[in-house]
Amino acid sequence: MPLYFFGLKKKEKEEEAEVDERLLGRTKEILSSYGKLSNSVLIDTVRITEGLLDRTGLSDIDRTLWGAEFPRADAEEVAVDKENLNAVLKCIKRFYHCLATMDAELTPLNYRMQELLEHRGNNFANYGNDEIAVFRKAAKCSEEIRRILLIDILDDKGKLTDKAREKAEQLLDE
Length: 174
Hints:
- It is a single chain.
- About 70% of the residues lie in helices and about 0% in strands.
- By secondary structure, the protein is mainly α.
- Helix 1 packs parallel to helix 3, helix 2 runs parallel beside helix 3 (about 80-120) and helix 3 (about 80-120) runs antiparallel to helix 4.
- Mean pLDDT is about 80; it is low at about 65.
C-alpha cells in the first residue's frame, strides 16, 4: 500500500478530532448559557408571577417549589462522546427555546395581573371569567417553567439524563 494512504487516514482522524473538539466547546457554551438563563431573568419573572398569585389567594403553584434550587448545568461535566454531545445540544436547545417562549408569554400576563389587582383588588366576585383565566394561565405557565428548570440535564457521569431526554422529546412533539 502506498505511503500517502496512511497520511490521509491520519489527516482524517485529526480533522475528526478537531470537529469533536469544536462540538464539545459549543456544547459547553450552550450549557453555560442555559445555566445563566435559568438562574437570572426567568427566575425573576416566575417569582413575580408567584408573588402576584399569592396576593390573590388563587395560587395553584406547589409551594414546595418556591425555595427549590435550580440545576446549574456544569459544562465541565459533559462526557466527551459525540453521540452524547449531540443529544445534550439538542436537549438544551429545546429547553432554551421552550423557556424563552414561556417567559415571553408570562411577562405580559404579569403586567395584566398587576393591573387587575390595582384596579379590582383581591375580591374575585368582581372579576370576569376571562380575567380570572389570566391568573390561572400565569400559574400554569409558572409551574411548567419551574418543572423544566428542575430537570437535571447531566448525570454524575456527564451523560444526558433520561428525564431530560424524555422532556426534550415531549417538547419536540408539542
